[in-house]
Amino acid sequence: MPSATFDYGPDFYDEATVFPRYQEARAAVDEGNTTLEEPYVLAFIGDLRGRSVLDLGCGDGTFGESVLRAGADRYHGIDGSGRMLAAAAARLDPATLERADLNAWTCREPGAWDVVTARMVLHYLDDLPALLREVRTALAPGGRFVLSVEHPVVTCAYDGDFHDGVPSEMRVRGYFDEGERACEWLGSSVRKVHRTVETYVRDLHEAGLALTGLSEGRPEPDNFRDPRTCEARRAVPMYLTIRAEKPA
To answer: What is the pTM of this model?
Structure first.
């Protein structure tokens, strides 16, 4: 049973029990983000040499570290958690970091960023169109926005059968009834926002961003240590990853 209930906000990961549980979950062998989401994010971003990267929901800086290793010449991470940003500051150099609630974030450097990323954070936000308008403002002409969220097949109901943490079946209910959902995450019941695939694509289009790539996290054997886990992951799409571009 969840130990606490949270309306996800910028300080969620500052709760005493949440941050260590997050680190433990992400360190697991063949963890879902590492095997099903991150490979497609990196493929959609492409060559980062000499690029500037704005990372919305930068977390503990693990992703920022890989961005800088890939040759980005500027990285700026934004997160709402002081604990996450402290971990990122200890890991990242050179980089700049900013504490902000993405529900209220506004771009302060229009046209400054070749790449904007938002990994696994948009399903917490209430006003997606407003955030996407700020992303468009932040991007340089021809710049790329790469986002990932929990797959809407999952967020519609959060009801499935799991074996060793891997879902063998998800029950799709209320798919077109968008809005708030409760999800057990890191020992807490967390509020998230369900949107359909159609809504994500439409909101990007209406924000002036052109869809150029979409992935549902197809499992690929090369991304897994255990081939049995790879095979089990074929049952349910867990992540939706999208690339969109600002017109040049």
So the answer is: 0.93
